[in-house]
User: Fold Glyoxal reductase from Cohnella kolymensis.
Amino acid sequence: MQLSITSTVELLNGVTMPRLGLGVWRTQEGEETENAVSAALKAGYRSIDTASLYKNEQDVGRAVRASGIPRDQVFITTKVWNDDQGYDSTLKAFQSSLDRLGMDYVDMYLVHWPVKGKYIDTYRALEELYDQGRIRAIGVSNFTIGHLEDLMAHCRIKPMVNQVEFHPMLTQKKLLAFCRKEGIQLESWRPLMQGNLDLPLLAELSAKYGKTPAQVVVRWHLQLGVVTIPKSVREERIRENADVFDFELEPEDMNRIDALNRDHRFGADPDNFDF
Assistant:
């Protein structure tokens, strides 16, 4: 699979989205976020994933403007938090996110979690904003197959992306297959398992390919066709996470990484969360 840092996937509506991006969850507001985003853009990243919950949208916006890269060349994702879900409140929350980013549109807006009794109305607001041309692509985050089926029974516009926890210890094969069948792009958060990469197989493959365990895992995501947004605040690590385009994992090694699955979540269960 010939890939590069500029490689993209095409979403259901024809919009292209970079396969690799930078996540800024738990990146401190202010200088830390600005520096991380600046380092990523300098290294060739063209996708930044934030959320209202992260409290660093304004820093993302500042770093993008300071980079001198034209706005239409950077793919910006943000999300509506659970407290703001519902039709009218989502419309207001979106405007607040835009104001913090200092932008007049975002490339993608996601429903952050499937809040029971609210996510359908929340998504209806996303459809309205999409119709207005203020969002180039809409989608969801942390949705299971059941949530997606319920949403698709009620929505006009099929979600284009489902961003979920996904990594070698949580391969979500059924969800991946469902999303592929429906044309919904799967995107991985926490792809590097919170740094829990000290697995014998990853050490073996690291030696085999002359890459770090993190690079092996990022490459595994990309070869699966899963968009991935590894988070780091260190410039050398940000560059390292993107240095994955000069090798290819052999099919048997892809399968061996798949076999690490333990259905283990480092984050919350979308079917049982209370925030």
